[in-house]
Amino acid sequence: MSALTKRPLTLPEIDAMDSATYRWHEFNNFENLHKALNPPPPPSAKELRAAEAAEVTKEFQAWCAKNNRKVPDVLDPAHDFIFASFFEERDRPNKIKAIEEDVTRWMKSHPEYIPSESSRIAISEYLDEHKLAINFANLEVAFQALVKSGDIAVQPPDTSPKQQQFRNGELIHVTPTDRRNTDPSRAASTEKTVTKRVSQQSASEFLQNLIDSPSFKKRIDS
């Protein structure tokens, strides 16, 4: 028993004790044994609300100090306005994050939407005019209404059948009418043609040609 010490205990530890060890703790470590066997009850809803209120009050006092404001009395007419300003600033990061997530999710769901300043302004003005918050559902309402009214143009649907092929080392989409030049060993029709000798190119020209012409890069690599 010489290795035993007075310390906090857990229920699994107590369950694993033999009778001699348990008896030692009864006589030498009773307070910790009693705490482990009789844990305090979880806080009530009233206690949780009181703790949350105390934490908010502490944050409010710190916010007032940071903004050089005197902490108003609850009965002060200005209290509600100042408290509302505190909560608005406190919740702003979460609101901004939620808006960003909704906008990103909405844009991914509408590949036909053409991002532009005019479209952004049209949607913003629609939301302001109808007093709608910026969220996924309201963006959908504004978009559908503006497309119907012609205030926003969208990409026409691409109904042509597409297939995937590799061209110049890259995965591309081609339609049946594009298949006449799909030989991976040949340069794409839109690719820059490099005819100037390497010895006659400047360093900047050489680097740009590597970027603009995959077939030129392939010749250099080989």
* Amino- and carboxy-terminal Cα gap: 78 Å
Which structural class should the secondary elements be placed in?
mainly alpha
Largest sheet, strands/sense/barrel: 2 strands, antiparallel
List low-confidence stretches: 162-189
> Largest sheet, order of strands side by side?
1-2
Our Rg estimate from Cα atoms comes to 35 Å
Q: What does this entry show, briefly?
A:
With 222 residues, the chain is mainly α.
Give the topology:
Layout: H1 11-15, H2 19-28, H3 30-37, H4 45-66, H5 79-108, H6 117-129, H7 136-149, E1 163-167, E2 170-174, H8 203-212, H9 214-221
Antiparallel strand pairs: 1-2
Quickly list its features.
222 residues; mainly alpha; 9 helices
